[in-house]
Amino acid sequence: MKKLVSALALVSILAVSSQAAKQVDTRLELMKDMRTMMDAMEQIQRGGLYSSTDDMKVGVKKLQGTLKSLESENVKAILPKDQVYAYKFAQKTAQMLRMYSDDMVTSIDAGKMDNALDDYTQLLKQCTSCHIRIRNW
């Protein structure tokens, strides 16, 4: 009987610790994606300032590669629990980031750098808006 109780306790502890480790891994992965987004924005800006459309496009691709994190349920791991709208706001922000970055590539391909840099400004506004509202800056 003691062995059964001990085994059940051990299984319970392992299950709880496994779940906690999974949540920590999710948070770490999301934070890594946020750093990648920042790197992508820097690359886009650098490309725009140095008239390197290739760098801008690589930055856009890098940025868009991370948007799936904002669109997934996993993003809830880093959002404040007391803000009911946070998840929907993060999804809407991801949608807007995708729209402006797609438009940026279209503008670059059309040779309209002014429009592409305006799209960069809109991307930065989306980032700032999310950080102000969600992270309470």
Q: Topology, please?
A:
Blueprint: H1 2-49, H2 53-71, H3 86-109, H4 113-134
Write up what this structure looks like.
The chain is mainly alpha-helical and 137 residues long. It contains four helices and no strands. The relative contact order is 0.10.
Which consecutive residue ranges, at least 5 long each, have pLDDT under 50? none
The mean pLDDT is: 85
Oligomeric state of the chains in view: single chain
Distance from N terminus to C terminus (CA atoms, Å) equals: 55 Å
**Strand-residue proportion:** under 5%
CA-based shape: elongated
What is the CA-based Rg, rounded? 20 Å
Q: Tell me the series of helices and strands, N- to C-terminal.
A: HHHH
For the sheet with most strands, the description reads:
none
Q: Give the strand tally.
A: 0
Summarize this structure as a short list of keywords or feature phrases.
mainly alpha; elongated; 137 residues
How do you describe this structure in short?
With 137 residues, the chain is mostly helical.
